[in-house]
Amino acid sequence: MISKFGVGTALLLVDVQNGVDVLDYWGGPTGRRNNPQAERNLRTLLEGWRKKSLHVFYTMHDSREQHSPLKLALPTGHIINGLEPHSGESVTIKDVNSGFIGTNLELVLRRQRIQRIVVAGFFTNMCVETTVRMAGNLGFDTYVVEDACATTNRVGWDGVDRDAELVHAMAITSMDGEFCTALKTSDVLGLLDADATQLSRRQGNE
């Protein structure tokens, strides 16, 4: 665990697209999503990164599945309002779960001398998890922002409808300590502002 997020640390937003809320597609007729605060926390992260002029990257999913709402040609494939990339922020289009398969994402990160990636977005157990696992295997110092991710319920092979919060928690638990470090938004903001916090403490002790 490092003491500061600074130069060399990128924010990667995974599939922050309107289609993640087409819940009957993802979770069946009783589709449900966890963490309704995810979008607010994602906006907070973006604001923090942009304030520090640090690198921001996006993936967008253009699904191969015929009926998927995550197709760029559909309104549901568009970026969620308030999370749109700014000029100069890199957007990687993918059609599988990992942001690194069939894309130049790793090359772009390396060229920008990024060693550390902070990942957030949708869905925790799908594209976030697959991208985080690969990032860790590729040697990036990887972090996942638990409360800036979300997923839906999943009906398993056994017919059991597992709640979204359980699916989310198990995905975070599986990643943390093996492929990444799990943090909350408040933790990330603290690491972004580490210098200012340390300066304030020093001044308070003088």
Descriptive notes:
The protein is α/β, with parallel strands linked by helices. The radius of gyration is 17 Å and the shape is globular. A hairpin with a 5-residue loop joins strand 6 and strand 7. The strands form two sheets. It has a six-stranded parallel β-sheet, sandwiched between helices. The chain has a single domain, classed as Isochorismatase-like (Rossmann fold).
Question: In terms of topology, how is this protein built?
Answer:
Layout: E1 9-14, H1 23-27, H2 38-51, E2 56-61, E3 90-94, H3 105-111, E4 116-122, H4 124-137, E5 141-150, E6 154-155, E7 161-162, H5 164-175, E8 181-183, H6 185-192, H7 194-205
Parallel strand pairs: 1-2, 1-4, 2-3, 4-5, 5-8
Antiparallel strand pairs: 6-7
Largest sheet: 6 strands, parallel
Mean pLDDT: 94
The proportion of residues in beta strands is 15-25%
Helix content: 25-40%
- Rounded to the nearest angstrom, the distance between the terminal CA atoms is 28 Å
Looking at the structure, the CATH topology is Rossmann fold
CATH superfamily name? Isochorismatase-like
Category by helix and strand content: alpha/beta
Annotated CATH architecture: 3-Layer(aba) Sandwich
| pLDDT < 50 runs, ≥5 residues | 196-206
For the record, what CATH class applies?
Alpha Beta
Number of domains: 1
Topology as a string of helices (H) and strands (E)? EHHEEHEHEEEHEHH
The shape is: globular
Number of strands: 8
Radius of gyration: 17 Å
